[in-house]
Amino acid sequence: MNDTTQEHIVLVDKQNNVLGTAPKLATHNKNTPLHRAFSLFLFNSRGELLLQQRSSLKKTWPLVWSNSVCGHPMLNESNLEAVKRRLKFELGINIENVHETLPDFSYRAEKDGIVENELCPVFVGFTDQEPAINKGEVENVRWISWQNFLNEINEKPGTYSVWCENESKLLAKNGEFLKLYKEYVR
User: Fold this and answer.
1) Is residue 26 within 8 Å of 109, Cβ to Cβ?
2) pLDDT per residue over 116-137, tens digit each?
3) Beta-ladder partners of 167
4) DSSP secondary structure code for residue 79 in this structure
5) Residue 2 burial (C-beta neighbours within 10 Å; 0-12, 13-18, 19+)
6) What is the pLDDT of residue 120?
7) Rg of the chain's alpha carbons, rounded to an integer?
8) b/e string for 26-58 if b means 16 or more Cβ within 10 A?
């Protein structure tokens, strides 16, 4: 399966009840319906966050820098399974150390006539593997210290994707994330 052109999104109501599925690319437009998604923030043992610049081929937010991986679970696929599938597909990384930390995050954002409208739980993961990027999905990557990243989004809002900046601010205050981060980072 070609992961980008054949993918469907899971349409949901505000209570996350499944309403059906729709083709991912065709459905992301100015009237994008509410659907399931996820975000992953991947850290190494030095406390650095892996950021990705979205591919120039992306319909939504091309060439925008964002968190490590974002995507959509398939029908009957758990969010955790989707996180691992997309992490392998986009960055060539297999990990087990993944935790859902913001289960109820949702957002709506618009850029260049495309709307994102997602129930988007946020996950954090930890690895010292280096990415092997899929150029169809990712233009570039870079590691940045968590504190420097938080400084950047506060000093230069709009530098990263809307969801990445909003999720980061919530993670910075999230007790579960802070505990995991302190346990893993050397």
Assistant:
1) no
2) 999 999 999 999 999 999 999 9
3) none
4) H
5) exposed
6) 98
7) 15
8) ebbeeebbbbbbbbbbbbbeebbbbbbbbbeeb
Nearest residue to 140 (alpha-carbon basis) of 84, 60, 58, 82: 58
164 counts as catalytic: no
The number of beta carbons lying within 10 Å of the beta carbon of residue 156 is 10
Residue 87's closest CA among 48, 124, 45? Answer: 124
* CA 49 – CA 85 distance, rounded (Å): 19
CA dihedral for 163, 167, 169, 170, sign (positive or negative): positive
**What is the reported pTM?**
0.93
| Contact by Cβ (8 Å): 138, 67 | no
Give me the catalytic one of 116, 118, 137, 165. 118
Amino acid in the structure at residue 102: L
Show the tokens assigned to 33: 């319906």
pLDDT (0 to 100) of residue 2 = 43
Q: What is the CATH number of domain 8-184?
A: 3.90.79.10
Pairing of strands 38-43, 69-71: antiparallel
